[in-house]
TrEMBL record:
Stored Pfam families: DUF1485, MlrC_C
Residue ranges annotated for the Microcystin LR degradation protein MlrC C-terminal domain, each copy included: 294-463
Lineage top rank: taxon: Bacteria
The name this protein goes by in its record: M81 family metallopeptidase
InterPro entries, sorted: MlrC (IPR009197), MlrC_C (IPR010799), MlrC_N (IPR015995)
Residue ranges of domain Microcystin LR degradation protein MlrC N-terminal in the record: 3-284
Amino acid sequence: MYRIAIGGIAIESCTFSPLTSGVEDFLILRGQEMQVRYPFMPEWNFHGREDITWFPILQAKAIPGGSVRAADYAAMKNELLDGIRAVLPLDGFYFDIHGAMNVVGTDDAEADLARAIREVVGPECLITTGMDLHGNVTPELVKEVDLFTAYREAPHIDYLDTREKACRLLLQCLDDGTRPVRAWARIPVGLPGERTSTFVEPGRSVYQTLKLSDIRPGILDASLWVGYVWADEPRTSATVVVTGTDETACREETVRIARVYWDARYDFDFCVEAHDADTCIAKAAALKQKAVFISDSGDNPTAGGAGDIPTFIGRLLAHPDFASGAATAIYASMPDPAAVRVCYDAGVGAYVKVSLGGKLDPVHARPLEVEGEVVLLSPDDVVGGDLAVLRAGGVNVILTSRRKPFHVIHEFTRLGLDPKEHELTVVKIGYLEPELRDAASHAFLALTTGAVNQDIPKLPFKRVRRPFYPLDDGFDPGDFEVQVVA
């Protein structure tokens, strides 16, 4: 019988945001609660195998945000380690992480956590992980983790496939008695996810080249991380890890993949038209059609922004069509518990005046005074807390008690707002998630300000390794330095 435990802490941490993250921002699953993350093994049965006992310990996941407070990280880390100690000995451990967590005072938090786990489980236990392709991977992490795999799709439609693959590789190596080789290389490039989607070129073709590694003997997995660029850390960059049984093959495939990505760096661009806020609004209004989507990208919480810069709402209300109600719009969303409370105290049908935004991120945001009618109240949203819809002119602003991204149509329609009935829907995210992309009659990306804005060279980087594209140009990394852990 194999004894395999599961656990981890997952968040994308923007170091440019003044907002820190704490335990209250994480959804923490323990024991049997973790089953929902692994539907490919119902009742902890992986493909009918009866020779495995799974020990789900703790998995903590938060939407992207600022750096995690040290005490909160320590509390989650210690609970996870205590849970692992209680089920020793272990043959394997599935390390369920994202890959871009920053802890106040600690860079490379995933490597710190992996080292602590390794000290508990010992050198013989095989550790595997299935990561987000926006993680920042270091040699220190590669030293502690035996098996790597990462998403190959952005948006991440393959997240469950990746978790399943990580578990399958772990079992394959346990069955075969394999201790894998890992080859790692850094690519000195930092691009936002909005420019590196695999749904369009060159991202689609770059990631397709990983399949050439899949069929090479001696290779178990080839993974390419575009990295998480809104973190001012020395580890921030694109990386490659190839895991296998043949050191030469792993090394050669790592160099090949790194060169493919490096050579494509100039070709990456936004998936849709990208303009300033006013241009996006004007172009959307000129289309005279329903279900146009705009991504308000510079402060979006799915990349780690605080989410309460209200500038785009102000620009919508400055446009005569949306200010008058001749055209209607949905804005999703604005986290402001004080404004939500004003709406709840007044009730549906009341007219209120609220000061929106500028509370979570006062560095990048100023409050915006808005008057409107409370048209809906929706308490106890799992992620967003109490919700309210405030209509000002033709603009329906969704207010939330906690930061909440809107990724699927149901999140709108359950609030009585259907994008196909409104000229414009503005979402505080980056690239559109698949369901929103399919619903959009046309889409734009607004290049707005904030902690996660798209103008990467203008971000206040101080600690990334230089040279680093696009902060620097006109350099060649030469032969990529490959580090091998055998």
